[in-house]
Amino acid sequence: MATGLANAAELKIWHHTYPPAEEFIKQKAAEYTKLHPDVTFQFQSDPHGDYEVKLLAAIAAGEAPDLINVLDYLYPKFVSKGILAEANLPAMGVKTNEELEALYSPGALKGLMIDNKIYGLPEELNTFALFMNKEHFAEVGIDVTDKANWPKSWDDLFAMAKKVQKKDDSGNFTRLGFNWVFGLDGFWYAMEYWPILNQYGCEVLDAAGKATINSPQCVAAFTDTWQRLVTDGIGGPDYATVNPVNALQDFSDGRQSMMMAGIWSPPLFGEDVKKNYVVAPIPQKDPANPKTLLYNYSMTVTQASKNQEEAWRFLRFLTSDGDGYLRHTGYVTGLKGWEKSEAAKDTIGADIFADQLQYGTYYWRSLTWNEEGKAIKDAIEQMMQGTSVQEALDQAAKQIDFVRSQN
Question: What is the mean pLDDT of the chain?
């Protein structure tokens, strides 16, 4: 394969911090350099909460990397600001959008398209499932390797959490049955509440763009799930370990028995937990009508890159190794048939994730998604401190409407 470059190119890659992905991308970059000795790479990573801030600062300073890691909800904002380059189809060996889309599972590229133009490729096509520590449940006589014992509803989940949690003689938790993620950025909160909002028919915005996060459906969703964690005495922010690099630290270390997370999470588990986890679908408000999350943490090329063609060519090379991604990072790139691959057969719960993806929907689209997500995160944290769900969401709705009015 020839690079087509007359001069040497150094491609700068920025990615959110996730050590397994960093190692894999560096490995693939080294392979690419062996094939194309005139192409070299620089790599930088930062924890998710800092990553976007630093990335936007670099772009504003005229120091944009060539390849960046971007969540799908940022595409409207980044495209409107001219940050992202439209996909170079010939560099990726295809002639049309349809030809590229045909390489992926249905809808895999939808979150990366604006006005029918493709601006990135999936690195993670993701949904969330429920992870359970089978050893913990075996201690209380529940066999979670039997799907008949999986929690189907949120009532089921909280009942199981109470059975498996442990406290010392002073009443302090020594093991949590379940907890939400706390203390991180708004996207982390959204990954956990978005499927629940869909289950309850809660919309963040109405068709006219006005905030409806304080609707009766949304109040019910947060009352029945997030606030209930505290009112039932099961968990809350006071019990969560905050770690921007591994948000799932408590489950990973065996201090928590259930969590919601993506297929990418097991590489971060401790060795004991790696041997003892089971994957199940997330609970539902209406188990007969499941609704889940769908999101895409993509790789894309910046408009400022002076080596766009080479960057797209490398991006196709990188993301074409779907089996490699799944084995080394736990990421599903969304290539068609991934669920039947040898890597998927060796991945615990791959069948569950493949099934749950079909019920997923992408986040709401907005040019001010970050600010809106922060308003909802702030509302959740207020609920955890005792503010009524209605009052907290009323404040979030006002903040969202204000942010949108300023854009």
Answer: 94
Averaged over 76-96, what is the pLDDT? 96
* pLDDT surpassing 70 at residue 155: yes
Q: What is the pLDDT of residue 3?
A: 46
Entry pTM? 0.88
Instruction: Provide CB contacts within 8 A for 227, sequence distance 6+.
Output: 383, 384, 389
Backbone φ and ψ for 258, nearest 5 degrees, come out as -140, 150
Tokens 């909160």 sit on residue: 189
Pairing of strands 39-46, 9-16: parallel
DSSP string covering 139-203: HTT--TTSGGGS--SHHHHHHHHHHH-EE-TTS-EEEEEE----SS-HHHHHHHHHHHHHHHT--
Q: How far does CA 394 lie from the centroid of its chain?
A: 27
Show Cβ contacts of residue 381 under 8 Å, excluding neighbours closer than 6 positions. Answer: 182, 237
pLDDT computed for residue 264 by the predictor = 87
Cα–Cα separations (whole angstroms), residue 77 to 157, 251, 315, 336, 400: 37, 34, 22, 28, 16
Amino acid found at 107: G
Question: What are the backbone angles phi and psi of residue 37, rounded to the nearest 5°?
Answer: -60, -15
Location of structure tokens 């990188």: 318
Q: Exposed, middle or buried by CB within 10 Å (0-12, 13-18, 19+), for 223? A: middle
